[in-house]
Amino acid sequence: MENFYGEQPLAGVSFSMYRVAEVSASGWWYTLLPDYEKSGADVNNLATAKDGRVAAETLTAWVQSQKLSPDARQSTDSKGTASASRLPTGLYLVVGERTKIGDSVYTCAPSLVAIPEWSAESYGWNYAVTIEPKNTPGGTISDNPGNIPDKPNQPDQTNKKPTPSDSTTKTDKNLPNTGVLQWPIPTLAGIGVVCMLLGWWLRRKRG
Predict the structure, then answer these.
(1) Over residues 47-69, mean pLDDT
(2) 2-37, pLDDT tens digit by residue?
(3) Which of 7, 8, 149, 188 is exposed most, by the fewest CB atoms within 10 A?
(4) Any alpha helices (H) in the chain, and if so which ranges?
(5) Nearest 5°: phi and psi at 136?
(6) DSSP state, 188?
């Protein structure tokens, strides 16, 4: 495991590893273990990063609610690294604790790690898996195991910037953008026509 935020190693971070599923002989199918069967997590349809994130967060919530014990636990050293050996094959939920280092609190997103994992480079199964947790600064220290991201506060509606649909001021359909009423326009046009006809008639009479 290599635990960093940018170039900064995060030391003293405790990670818990839960073996949540066993892997088939082909290596492509997982079956949730009895303790996790009712978690509601889908561990076989992980086509996108979002799928993996949702499954990991679902399993983390289940671990918390059932107070399950991890199969292994390791803390990172001064270089931000940690290792675990002799872990049986399967799918693991890896959960890092929130840790305060200096003035910052770091939250590690839970993740799913397969042992072994498929390596496209060697075109074979890799049993020496390296994990690089995703860390985010901010938040507060929690006593609960695991770190599902906090639900963001709902925005204060009193500070909401008004939009055209939110505005209580309605524009009258008879008011153009200039703010001048439209009803005098036909009247003035009619008066202009009358004046032109009158002028033409006077000129003809004099002639």
Answers:
(1) 96
(2) 888 888 888 999 999 999 999 998 888 999 999 999
(3) 7
(4) 49-66, 184-206
(5) -130, 125
(6) H
